[in-house]
Amino acid sequence: MRTFNLPANSLMRSKDFLFGVATSSFQIEGDRKGRETCIWDTFCAQSGKISDNSNGDDACRHIEKWKDDVELISSLGVDAYRLSISWPRVMTIDGDVNEMGMQFYVNLVDELVRRGIKVFVTLYHWDLPQHLEDNGGWLNRDTAYAFEKYATAVASTLGDKVYAYATLNEPFCSAYLGYELGVHAPGLTGVGKGRKAAHHLLLAHGLAMKALRATCPNSLHGIVLNFSTCHPATNNEEDKIAAKLADEYHNQWYLKPVIDGQYPSIIHQLRDVDRPDIEEGDMDIISQPIDYLGINYYTRTVYKATPSDSADVNFGFEIVEPTNTPLTAMGWEITPDAFTELLVNLHQQYALPPIYITENGAAMDDEMIDGEVNDVDRIDYFNSHLNAVNVAIEAGVDIRGYFAWSLMDNFEWALGYSKRFGIVHVDYDTQKRTLKQSAHVYSELVKNRINGTLAV
Ligand code: NOJ
Known about the structure:
Blueprint lengths: L17 E5 L2 H4 L10 H6 L17 H15 L3 E5 L2 H4 L8 H16 L3 E7 L5 H4 L8 H17 L5 E6 L1 H10 L10 H25 L4 E8 L2 E3 L4 H24 L21 H5 L5 E6 L3 E5 L11 E4 L15 H14 L5 E6 L7 E2 L2 E2 L2 H19 L4 E7 L18 E4 L4 E4 L1 H11 L9
Parallel strand pairs: 1-2, 1-13, 2-3, 3-4, 4-5, 5-7, 6-8, 7-10, 10-13
Antiparallel strand pairs: 8-9, 11-12, 14-15
Bound molecules: 1-deoxynojirimycin.
C-alpha cells in the first residue's frame, strides 16, 4: 500500500502540529432554499459560465448530512476542521441575523468542539449575498462595512468556541478572477474593477480584524491568502523581471498591505483610472496585526516577458503553459520544491506571524473500482508537499498546521463537479461518501503521531 514518508524526527509527527481537513460553504452545503441568493447562484445560472452547467443547489447536501460529515471527520482522527460560513445564510437582506441559518453553525461548531476538533472558521469564501452585489458588491466601499457587521454577528454568536477565525479566503480569486478576468462570480472584467475590489476586500479584512479581536479576544484571527510562486521561463533578464512583476501583481498585492501597510511598487505602473481609491487611514486599518497567516498552495506559475502594449492592460508578463512536467487533473504542475521556496521566501521577506497551511491538495482523475478509490497519485502529491512543508520548518519557518483540501469532493467553482479534490469520494447521485485510499493514509499519519514536541 502506498503511504507517506515523512522523516521520523519531523516536527510534524508531534501532536503539537495540527492536521486538519477543509471545505467551504458554497462548495458543499446545498440547501439553496435555506438562504439568500449569492453571487455564485447568479453566475451559475448564466449559460456557459460553469463547465458542466451545474450549480450549488445541492452540492454535497452537507446542511442535511452534517452530522454524518462530522462523524466522518472525527473518524479520520484529525485535530481540526476548516469550514466557512455562508454570509447569505446567516444574514437577511435587511442586515439582521437569520436565526435559523446561524443556528446551523452553532450546532455544527458545538458538535465539533464536543468531539475535540478545533474549528477554523473562514468568514468569506466567495459567496457574497447577491443583494450586496446589486449595489456594487466589492466595487462598493460600503460592502466592507457590511462585512464588518456580519463578522461581528458571527463572532458574537460563535465566540471562542472557534479556535481560529479567518476574515477572507483568497482575496486574489475574489478580486482578480471575479472582477478583473470575469471567470468567477460576479463575472466582471477590467483592471480598474479588479484593483478596486481587491482594495475593498482588504479594507473589509482590516475592519473585521478589529471587530473580531474586540468580540473574541481568546480566538486566533487572521487571513487566508493563496500564493503561486512565479518562475521565469528562461534566465533572461526580461523573463526574470516578468516573473517578479507577476509575483507583485498576484501574490504580494494581498500580503504586503496586510503586513507592511503598503501596496507593492507595481501599483505605480497602473493607469490613474485603474488605481484604487485609497482613503486616508485605509492602510492602517488593513495592516492590523494578525495572529496567524493562512497559506493556500497548489502549484507554481511560469512567466515570460511580453511586449508592453500601452493602450491595453499589460504589465509585461505572460503565463507560459507547462510542458513535460507531471500535472494534476486541473492541468497544474506538481511542484513541491516551489512550496518550500515560497514558505522560506515569505519568511525571509516579511515579519510574519505563525503560519497554517490552510489548503493544499490535488484534483486527480479518480476511478472507483469495486467500491474503492486507490488514488495513488493524490497520496504522492500529499507526500511530496508534506515533505516540502517539513523542509521549510527545518529551515526555520514557523508553521503550526496543515489542512488537506478537501475533506470531500465538491463544487469546484467554474469547473463544477468535474474535478475531484476530496480525500473522500462523493457519489452525487446517492450522496454516499467513500473514503479514498488517501483518506486512509492521511488518517494513519495523524493517528500515529506522538505526544509532545519532538527534538530535532
Ligand atoms: C482554493 C479555494 O479556496 C477552494 O475553494 C478551491 O476549491 C481550491 N482552491 C481548488 O481549486
